[in-house]
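Weekend entry, working from home. Most of the wet-lab plans are on hold until the incubator is repaired, so I used the time to fold the two sequences that have been sitting in the queue since the last round of cloning. Logging both here for the record. First:
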Amino acid sequence: MTNIVRRLSCNVVVFTTVAVIAFLVWEQPRNLISVIGFVFFLFILLISSAHPDKVNWRPVFGGLALLFFFAVLILKWDVGQAIFEFLGNKFQTFLEALSIKFRFGEKYKEHHLAMVGHVLTEIVFFSCAISVLHYIGAMHAVFGKIARVMMVSLGISAPESLSAAGNIFIGQTETMIRPFLALMTRSELHAVLTCGFATIGGEYLAALIPLGVSAKHLLCASVIKAPCALAVSKLLYPETESSKFGKASHLGTKEKKEGNILKAVAGGAWSSIELVIKYVFIMIAFLAMLEFVNAVLSWFGGFVGYPEFSFQMICSYVLMPLAYLMGVDWDDCGKVGELIGIKIFVNEFLAYGELSTYLHNRKFCTGRILSVRSEIIATYALYGFSNLSSTWIQLGALGLLAPSRREDLSTIKYTALLGGIVTSFLTACIAGLLVAEPMTQIACLNSTVVNTTMTSSLTFVSRIIDQHDSG
């Protein structure tokens, strides 16, 4: 009887999904490109799978079904849109409690570090808030329930579901799964890494919103990427061992709490120091390396009369087809491909910073502007820690907690990174399928220069320097 109910439920889910997709494509034929892109990226995962003949399709199809369900709920249902619009506005209000004017005073523009402080102190503030929520038990109560739903519906283990649920809210969930690390299977470790690469911690989320990126779409990406990352991981690295944490009772494992709420605040601030240091120095290192690479490429390009040759230009042309498969307008594919390249090879913050330049241009109707559809798809495609620098950060954190698993982590790190990257692409395809471009925001496109000269420098960084100089 149970099998009959399960099969019937699966048939209903499949039929409903196909019907919704068919309706969306009928309503807007160009949405078919996003559907084709979604299937293409799944095919890439399948041929890259470590054990394609041993894939357990339950967590794969279940995770993709949850992805589609939550995406439709948030992006197409009026109530869901209103809820996430409300949450996004409240989240922005929450961050404004530590506004730049509050920190630097009325003459904050005279401070050359104001822009940097605006981002980094958001991280410290949010880290303190999360630490307090941990202390009072609110975080564990919320993502514990979500983890139980994913564990039952997808048939995955306790550490996998806890890691995915935790990454929705806070990211960097290593301490949550610390009791399990030594005995986890390779597939479970792979799922934890993939979820980490596919999502962004709340502290980083707090740093992106001041750039002008839509809080609503960032929160939506945070929710829908968790089940998608699990599906991707189970397709890339299927379970071939027997898990020791298959019971729901393992979800009750709690991490150690601070002694009181003041220690929780201090602990949150202290733990954010390491994050801020990583943030700043990785930015400095990768920016310096990028400028060096661009200088070399420009030098070689000068021999053929093309000194504008740069790493961003290479990414623009190489990744343009992938951007198109996500549903990005063809005129914008080069720019979005460039952003994706910056995200993968440098980091997501600089990529969002470049995206904020186009958002800034739209606001003031100046310079190069992307279509609203392309901006939204790019928001989802750039979301996540899936870049080369984060690989070593993840391995370092997990390796310190479980030294005996360092060899296993080194073996699976690049397939997990691929999983995180493709998870971003899959959610971007879903956004391309579901999001309708608001006509009220297209007017600025008529007053923009569509074809602009490609430069080797990051416009986001240049804009910050110009703001400091003018201040």
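Second, folded right after the first finished:
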Amino acid sequence: PCPAQPHPSRATQHKPPLSSSTAPTGSMSWSTSKKNARTALPVFSILFAATVLFTVAAFRERNRLRFATPGLMTVKFRNSQCIRGAMLNPMKRNVEVLVPSSTVSVAEEGLKTTPSTADSALTTLDKAKNVPFAIDETPESEKPGFLDRDYFRFDDSAEFWLDFKPGEYEPADLIAKIQDSVTNSRHATYWAYHLGRFGFFVASGVLGVLYAQNQGNSPPQFTSQILATRNGGYLKNIPNDVIETHLWNLKWIKDGKFRMPYDMNPRHRQFDPRYLATTTWKAVNEMSNILKKRNNPDEANTDVWVDNKIYPDYYRKTFHFQTDGWLSSRSADIYDHMTEIIFNGKQDAMQRTTLVPFSKFMDETNEEKPKVLEIAAGTGRFATFVKDSFPEIDLTVSELSPYYLEKARETMRYWEENFSRSETPPTRFVQAAGEDIPVSDASQDCVMSVYLFHELPPEARRAVIREVARVLKPGGTFILTDSVQLGDRRVLDPTLGNFEKLNEPW
């Protein structure tokens, strides 16, 4: 059979031209000269760096005066990882591996949409989750990231992140990289916004740690270790990861893979001081509660408040020690803020890596309004980025938690009312587990999963893969984005087991 040909004008339908007409209301015009943009960027960088340096110095001095700083501890906050995107296509066997950010994201093309093939496709996933945490002793040839090379074609970004070491670049080098990436004022705005997010969420995390100590939920020694880790390697390491993550995102935007993030628009509610203050205070309180359980795991109650058989056994736990697990509006309201703290403000950028293989799918499909299903969509934030770049899709969002599903509906409604640029088919919302999706056989052109599989035990992962194979049309595409595996980033291998301390059982 012949490969699918792009729909007429599809290649340009969703790729915005670099013109001022695509700039959101209230944002800078792209007509500003390259010279002006390059001149403005060092100012943003210097102001941002000065603020961070002042804050870090203040906290370091505070720690030095109040208690001795013990040796540095490697702390794993899921350091910007996100693996894979699996693209299933019964007519191909080659697969692309895409690594965004410090993330590892894979676009895996070429697995037949049949249960038997789905079983064999899970071998790597099983090994990723079942390797013992004496990770340094795992032979390179047995690491899932290495085994992937037998099945998948690696994107340049995957090769880049494999051996990337955060401490390799000096601040001047990073500033030069940012300046080289700026060719118009929209690019400068991108950096100003995302470096600001980085500083804000790092500050939120530090505030949460200090508040937890003040409330007696975290011992001074733990606070010292966290801040010492951040102070000792912070300006050298974390900014490198963040900047490289956004360099890849900006490259893909320039290549027309997806649009500039709509939430850069100053009209977005995240710029409202009242909204920021309320959400940050909730997150700081939640971080204090999480650290209390993290530091006293034997005393932590990981059961959820509701007892029923509607949800699978593995689901009725407080993942990450978050209050109520997935089963409350409180949890749904602060989830995005908490994950941005964990990933130093680049969670959105990591998730947007999924749009790279999705853009390829959109280029190749013949459907005018392809049917797309996102399973385990959480708060629905990623779904709004999908719709913003590809408004023509017929999107179904599924989520098992009714609280998170309601949040997803509210998030999508907010985007539609404030940022939608054109007519778009209505989004459907379905409450369902990934193992039992209430849609017809062979009905979906594309299925996406972002950050689901690392929360599933092996038997549930297999069930979800079989269900995805059932609902996809012949030749359909499955894009899977999830946590980094052993061998995806060599520098992170020694610390991948640390996140289990935050109640990540699988």
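Plan for Monday: verify the second prediction. The longest strand covers residues 472-481.
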